[in-house]
Amino acid sequence: MILRHAFIPPDNTRLANLAGSFDEHLRTIAAAFDVKIQRRNESFQVEGAKGHAERAVLLLQQLYGRAVRPIGAEELELAILEAMNDDAGRDGTAAPDGATERPEVDLRLRTRRADLAGRTPNQVQYLKNILCHDITFGIGPAGTGKTYLAVACAVDALERNAVQRVILTRPAVEAGERLGFLPGDLAQKVDPYLRPLYDALYELMGLERVGKAFEKGTLEVAPLAFMRGRTLNHAFVILDEAQNTTPEQMKMFLTRIGFGAKAVVTGDTSQVDLPKGSTSGLIDAEKVLRDVKGIATTRFTSADVVRHPLVARIVEAYDAADAKGR
User: Fold this and answer.
1) Mind listing the pLDDT tens digit for each residue in 86-131?
2) 3-state secondary structure 158-185
3) Bridging pattern class, strands 36-40 and 235-239
4) pLDDT for the residue 95
5) Cα 242 to the chain's mean position, in Å?
6) Segment among 14-23, 66-75, 131-140, 243-252 with least mean pLDDT
7) DSSP codes, 299-326
8) Among candidate residues 236, 234, 238, 242, the one with its CA nearest the CA of residue 268
9) What whole-number distance in Å separates Cα of residue 147 and Cα of residue 265?
């Protein structure tokens, strides 16, 4: 099928931003929807399967509306991802947990990023689960926004005074290196393992506000071992990289939760760095707590990856190789 669309009246700045340098954006869209796109001034011709061509034209129209400024590669990839998920929601082919209806609520969080919201059905469901449950598990591959969205929810809860403090923790498990080989005291040794959490905080709150929150005690970042013996009331607690906990550590963490507290546990069960033969606390908890009321689990897939498109293809390749090995 061949579809033709012309942007009238033409705006050369918008057209240039839409097409990208040397029509790079058009090639990216064409590859994503498996179509051919030809442009002649303000006129576009899209050739491909009917559904794919229609989606590509619709995305071109949406992007043209944004093209008062240059469109970055990340913005383009996210727009393509949103367009594909919109189609999946309408077709009933990729909604989470077998659902065919699109989420009714577009959750937006109070952070420095005013546009922050779930971009895929699973991400939206994840945000809903965090809002409606005291304990939420987010399990899936890298790049799906598990940790980032959890930190955003924590910052939002702090901004709304729903909690008194935010505590971020993760196990200090080496991925091929030994803590003893790193320079400095204990705090300096574990700091590299907590760096992703700091990065998310800085982006969502700003460097100055993060520093003040640490001084006031409303923000705390600590290795999991420091959680033992504590009772966490009126706190938003995030356990990141939970696939590297033992079942004993997971039980210890989950039983720290006190009144007015909310906990989010994130991890990727395909990247366990525990010694061979050890059981992952995250895998164990998913089985043991499956039927416990008040606990929700969101499973992410490669379709939820919002990083470079190669990341999703890498995840899919490894999943396929694992399945073939089994």
Assistant:
1) 654 444 444 444 443 434 444 667 777 766 778 888 998 999 999 8
2) HHCCCCCEEEEEECCCCCCCCHHHCCCC
3) unpaired
4) 42
5) 16
6) 66-75
7) E--GGG--S-HHHHHHHHHHHHHHHHH-
8) 242
9) 9
